[in-house]
Design a protein that fits this description.
This protein has one helix at 2-16, and strands spanning 29-39, 46-47, 52-56, 59-71, 74-81, 84-90, 94-102, 105-111, 118-136, 145-147, 150-163, 167-176, 179-184, 187-193, 197-206. It contains one helix and 15 strands; from the N terminus they run H-E-E-E-E-E-E-E-E-E-E-E-E-E-E-E. The longest helix is centred in the first third of the chain and has 15 residues, at 2-16. 7% of the residues lie in helices and 63% in strands. The strands form two sheets. Strands 1-4-5-8-9-11-12-15 form an eight-stranded antiparallel barrel. A three-stranded antiparallel sheet has the order 10-13-14, with no helix packed on it. It has one domain (2-206): Porin. The radius of gyration is 19 Å and the shape is elongated. By secondary structure, the protein is mostly beta strands.
């Protein structure tokens, strides 16, 4: 599901690479509107004393970013999105539940070649993920699933391809440390390590 998203984004970005530059100066701020996938790592841990292998699937949703440049090429960015929804499965039992989550992330990031047509950037920050609307089915049907909120570090990297003087096509990816303690009807199940790669494309406009 994510491969077509990346292929389309790459094609748009390559087509924009020859267009005029988007400057990034102190006092500027930008808004970005895009689509991103939250793709959890393949091994999400074991529950119930290490007896049950758990897996969390991926999801794609619209996203928005706000970035304020405190210095030339150095910005503070906030990431937000519509709620992501993930199915939860256990090896041998199949799908046992699902949850929604919001992962707002604040990052400090540096943009290289800020006056150029192609501007890579790197960043690091803090993520807070809140889980809600947990539901159970299959082998866990009837139980009350609870997933604790998570705080963790985040790393971010990407490239802006300028489109005119105020816009850019952005291709980016970030890794987020998301771990949640799971319980069923009050009984602890263990920790689910989600640790997703979040990647996609956006249109960024400067104000």
């Amino acid at each position: 599901m994510q491969k077509p998203l990346l292929s389309c984004a790459l094609a748009v970005a390559l087509g924009a690479a020859a267009l005029p530059a988007l400057a990034q100066s102190a006092g500027d701020w930008t808004l970005g509107f895009g689509v991103h996938a939250v793709d959890p790592r393949s091994d999400n841990g074991r529950l119930a004393g290490g007896t049950l292998d758990v897996s969390v699937d991926s999801d794609v949703k619209p996203s928005v970013t706000f970035e304020y440049f405190v210095r030339d090429n150095l910005g503070i960015e906030v990431l937000a999105a519509l709620p992501f929804e993930h199915d939860i499965s256990i090896a041998g039992l199949g799908k046992v539940g699902n949850t929604r989550q919001l992962p707002p992330t604040v990052s400090l990031q540096y943009h290289f070649n800020g006056q150029g047509r192609v501007s890579p950037f790197v960043g690091a920050g803090i993520n807070y993920t809140t889980f809600f609307s947990e539901d159970t089915q299959g082998a866990l049907a009837g139980g009350k699933l609870n997933l604790d909120d998570s705080w963790g570090l985040a790393a971010h990297a990407g490239v802006d391809f300028a489109v005119g003087q105020r816009g850019a096509i952005r291709i980016d990816a970030r890794w987020i440390d998301i771990d949640t303690d799971a319980s069923l009807s009050g009984a602890s199940l263990g920790t689910v390590a989600i640790d997703p790669l979040v990647y996609g494309a956006a249109y960024v406009v400067k104000f």
